[in-house]
Amino acid sequence: MLDKVAMTEAIILAKAQKDTSxxxxxxxxxxxxxxxxxxxxxxxxxxxxxxxxxxxxxGLGPDVAEALQTFPHKSWDxxxxxxxxxxxxxxxxxxxxxxxxxxxxxxxxxGIMSAIDFTMxxxxxxxxxxxxxxxxxNGKFLPYKAW
Length: 147
Known about the structure:
Elements: H1 4-18, H2 22-29, H3 33-40, H4 48-58, H5 62-69, H6 84-108, E1 111-125, E2 132-143
Antiparallel strand pairs: 1-2
Helix pairs in contact: 1-5, 2-3, 2-4, 4-5
């Protein structure tokens, strides 16, 4: 069976050869582009039907579909990433994270936003001063409990 790294390499190569988009792959899977891309990059998994749809759409074999179904081990190689886009997201959390935490606690109480019961959308907003990136994160509030 393929590991997640080999699976991702096969998917990226097939995506380039097919000259297709993550949105088209997600549409074939019947899922969001964010979740499907994350699964194809090895950070989430797909159920059997979606995995087979992705593999079929990309012309890949059952080994890729099987690897897409395996549960991932989520890890990061570096403490601070060097990719500029990913680094900027870390910068946003570094600058605004405490503010987000304060406002969430004020509005909801002591707890966290779930990354399990969670959705995210990434959109492009045309703007004459330069197009804008719109990232919408929607996570269930999970209060801490006392016992």
